[in-house]
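Could you help me review a protein record that somebody else here produced? What it holds is a sequence and that sequence's fold in token form. I need someone to confirm that the token line plausibly describes how this chain folds. Take the sequence as given and treat only the tokens as open to question. This is what I was given:
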Amino acid sequence: MPLPDIILDDRRFEDIVAEAKRRIPGYTPEWTDLSESDPGVTLVELFAWLTEMILWRMNRVPGKNYLKFLELIGVVPGLPTPAQAHLTFTLAKKAPTAAPSVQLIPQGTKVALAEQVDGKPVVFETDDNLYAVDTELAALQSFDGARFDVLDEAHRVDGKYFYPLSARPQRNAAFYLGFTKAFAEGWPIALTMYAYTAGLIAEGKGVEAYSPPIDDPAVDDDEASFAVNDATALANSAPPPVVGVWEYWAGDALRWQRLDVKSDATASLAQSGTLTFLPPAPDAMAKAKMGLLRKDEDEARYWLRFRIDQVLGRGYEMAPRLEGVLLNTIPATNASTVEDELVGASDGRANQSFALANAPVLPSPFALTVDEGDGPVAWTRVRDFAASARDARHYVVDFANGRVAFGDGTHGRIPPRRWDLARPEEDLANIRVTRYRWGGGARGNAGAHKITSLQSSVPFVESVDNARPAVGGRDEESLDDVKARAPDYLRTRSRAVTASDFEFLARQTPGARIRRAHPMPLVHPELQPRRPAGAGLPSSSVAVPGVVTVIVVPEALDDDPKPIPNEETLTRVAAWLNQHRLLTTELFVVAPTYRKVEVSCTVTVKDSAGSGDVQKALQTMLSDYFHPLRGGADGTGWQFGETISFAEIFRRILDIDGVRSVEGEGVTIFVDGVRIRSCTDVPLNSGELTYSGTHRVIANYAGR
């Protein structure tokens, strides 16, 4: 990786020359000619130049040593990652009465940004085959179990979101999609849905920081991300919040029939993902006017719907919100594939390295062969040659700079030299990379509607576009970022031992948006043993050895005062922590216990302030102060078990701009509907949080 200059000695050529000239009168006063034509000054400048080179090399040593020390403990710089985008292909329009058709958009289709970045093109490749259809999504409706709501306007405006199953999904709620034409039979159709996640933390934020070191020299570098891959499998295996079914309208006689769904990555519309299904025969789908679109001017459509058949447990943690549904859309990566690149010719010497034609290189796929005389032989990529035997066919790749290196004959085999008897002085090229992908970096993070230049030749494609920005592109991790990450890696090593380990890892649970976690060692959620009173001592609780209970608080919308994780979230956190706990630890993951707090007060408003503004400010302050995610003294959430302080509430009321005084009996606090005696604090148990009920605030001017 490119190392920053860590300056141990900041002198430059000019500084060294000037310092030497200042010392001349003290040692040789007879030397008076200090012009550049003097031979002595020429020697001074020569040695100053050599000294500057030595200082430059010395200044780079600390950074390299630091990286090597980090590698010894398994912390390596993160590689550049490519941006990901979703590309939507639009087919050339045909006659409305034409039969449904399908056009293959092959994997690897290249689409570039309309404008170059830093003078270079930015190219995306599609990640899979796409079977584009000539129908259009023309209507969207939601059904809450009792009434319909048309969603077309919100669907067509960028940045707007809608509730596909209503704000409070229940059994038989449904999401209806109307299409202009039926689908061609026999081809998998992809329907991409975008969840609205603005203001929410990323799912499983930080999981990628846990890429453990490779102990086996024969293991590929991309296998070092097995923790992330396991995390993905864990997220996909968690129980869904509802049992839902996809159906299509088959006419008045057959009505709704089950759709042949091949995969559904939307988690029942709760997250962005793609639905892939095999459509029925075109004559099996029937046109109809549905829901609120039954007026004379409304056109009949071909309908699909997602219907909630059964709600599991608490159901959705947050009601699904979508900001877009697109047909003919496929994921694409900011990378280019290169096949059969001739890298160079081995000269039989140790520690050879060769530059690839492109950089940075992605870890996967990557395959290299060496022709040792009997045809190409596949060699194995390793992280380094420390554990490589003398004859091991191993090589190392510097992904950031695009270089391939080989061993020295002691650690790793040296590629044999090949030559032609007619020209023995020339080495024959025998090192070939059969396949690799290159690209990535922050330059691929393009805005919406920027990836529009089709580079591959695909018939019947009228245009291509990215409706959403390309995200995820990241340059190689800097040395400062590696240093910042190293303490957490050293502390946890992906193992949950201390309470802080459980807290940190719980917040990194893949597929879950965990905002806060609170571990309680030696506490069992269902057993509370107590030591009986005796010998003059009161009854006391007893710790339960080997037990850790982790309370998790999920991300929530701004209008949700009491975030509670559903069964799906608890299952994901428990399964994730179970992979990292010690064998002797009994683990429980539970939802928080909430105490409802309501404050009643009447305040006198200053003449210069508006009573309505003061009342609104008081309501906002009290609601935020007791909020489990944005409350507390520092605004990061009410602390678990923190005492409700009467004096602090009183002080915060008086600190509101425009409040002159508190009238009458002052401030009254209700906890869980029970009135608390004035000037009395309310202690909470260690696993309890607060949330706001209805605060009763009256703001009056003096004498009114």
